Structure prediction request, 261 residues.
Amino acid sequence: MFDIHSHLNFIAFEKDYAEIIGRSFNNGIKGIINIGSNLETSKKAIKIAHEFFNKKIYATVGLHPIYINDEKFNLKKYQQIAKDSKVKAIGEIGLDYYRISDIKTQNLQKTLFLKQLNLAKKSNLPIILHCRGNQERPLKAYEEMLDILKKYPNLTGVIHCFEANWKIAEQFLYSNFLISFTGIITFSDNEKIKEVIKKIPLDKILTDTDCPYLTPKPFRGKRNEPLYVKYIIQKIAEIKQINFKKIDQATTQNAMKLFKI
Prediction:
């Protein structure tokens, strides 16, 4: 089991992240990647990774699109920390239009996205994509992201917490990206997502908790943690009608390959 997108570097785990990491690796977790969402949490992810230097726990660095007005992107600082040996990707980066309808802010997000795609290219690292549309146009962010990625044909990575349809999924797969699913699939009866899971090849699937958020059943409503990735694997196995072990092996191998672990 491999959690490719956790936030043990967030304040929700400030007091017990070490305990949670220990529990995870003692109960079948093979790897954890802590995701940076701004400069502070990126640095914290690296710090945690080095604290557990003998474990497969890693970091990413990036500025999340929702922080576009809270932090000015400092390319030099991100370039510097991206060189750390424990950093495996640039992310999470992308487009988030969930509560944003004004074109000006959306364009600012695109500019930030482009800067970080260039950072990934220069750093020779894969990217962790975050993409979220709004109720009026749920696929707009996905479509605009795909248009931007066409300019970077040599980049690879993963789009995490995928919530679009098979048509969109196919385009990400064609662009050499993997697709990751979260605990949402355990409590949402979304037929479009089920179709994606049924059709997606085993070598293109990843799993992520996005902890402390998106806690899967049967723990929904409580704080999420990496160990709960097993419930996501169980649901994927159920939908694809493949046994747990096969999904577990595939998602773990996919993570190790993508992040060169």
Notes: Strands lie at 2-6, 31-34, 57-61, 87-96, 127-132, 157-159, 177-181, 205-207.
